Amino acid sequence: MAANSSSLSLSSHSSLPLNRSLSHRSHQPSPNLPFTNDPPSPRLVSVRAQGGSERAFSVDGFESGSGPKSVAHSDCTEASSSSSAIDFLTLCHRLKTTKRKGWINHGIKGPESIADHMYRMSLMALIVGDLPGVNRERCIKMAIVHDIAEAIVGDITPSDGVPKEEKSRREQEALNEMCEVLGGGLRAEEIKELWAEYENNSSVEANLVKDFDKVEMILQALEYEMGKLLVLQMVNVHDFNFLESQNTCASQDVLHVLMIYVREKSTDMDEYSVMGAEHGKVLDEFFLSTAGKFQTEIGKSWAAEIISRRNSRLANTLS
Questions:
Q1: Cβ-Cβ contacts under 8 Å for 310 (sequence gap 6 or more)
Q2: 164-182 and 73-97 are packed helices; what angle lies between their axes, rounded to 10 degrees?
């Protein structure tokens, strides 16, 4: 992604209509996409037939618009909408349980989920100051949906060796599937539009949210790097050293408990150290990969603050 050093300014992309045209193609649900192994429960949907009449059908393909099982149109529409919403939200649960693969690949224990990452990005969009030509509400929505397709495809990272075009194709296909689960309509179209706008980096809002994506990542990297130091701050170091020097069963038991606690709260714990310089080196990759790639002045400013805090803590730890 090419860096754009200019600050945010009013753009023709800053206020995009909800009904703008997007490229659509006929799409059949792929059997390879891992929704669930359980058969779907029948749901009634309203379909407009030729001539303008509407009849109710269940999603398993059996017409339910005649006979004793026929339902009123309003009841059918309400039931379908509620069912589709819960189906969609249940699918999105995977965003809460799927861990970010970049941290897993670097040996982080108990890493953040995709939803964790998107939530803090949404908070960034919420608290950022007003910027000329930027629709802040749109930024919040975009942050919420930008990784939503990963509920199906998972977190694809550069280390997976998937070409960018193929990654985008998989995510577009997954997004279409999710919007079908939602039942289509205005909200589904809005999700598609927001996702495409972010994917194509085609507005000042997308520029800003792309920066938030990187800012959130390096802030999380800093927090993982500082994990060991934060644990030590919860344990009185003088008491820790005192217990370690004692030769009594009681004190050794307490020391053992404290060391287990520290190990559980730390990551990559082969050999305990206050900062864990080796662990810091591993996470350097996340800072290096984002250097010079921030597009907005807000992104540059927030990233600089994170890097400044990192450098300051490293200097204090090593001094």
A1: 222, 225, 287
A2: 140
- For residue 129, give both structure tokens: 């100051």
Angle subtended by helix axes 237-245 and 249-265, to nearest 10: 130
Q: pLDDT-based confidence at 217, cuts 50/70/90? A: very high
Q: What is the pTM of this model?
A: 0.63
Residue given tokens 């100051």 in the structure block = 129
Strand partners for 54:
48
Q: What DSSP state is assigned to residue 30?
A: -
Torsion sign, CA atoms 286, 292, 297, 301: positive
Q: Where are the beta strands (DSSP E) in 120-231?
A: none
Here the contacts of 69-75 (C-beta below 8 Å, separation 24 or greater) are 71/44, 73/46
Q: 98-118: per-residue pLDDT in tens? A: 999 999 998 898 999 999 999
Question: pLDDT for 236-253, tens place per residue?
Answer: 445 555 445 544 444 444
For the chain, strand residue ranges (E) read: 44-48, 54-58
- Tokens representing 189 are 């179209």
Q: Using an 8 Å Cβ cutoff, are 1 and 293 in contact? A: yes
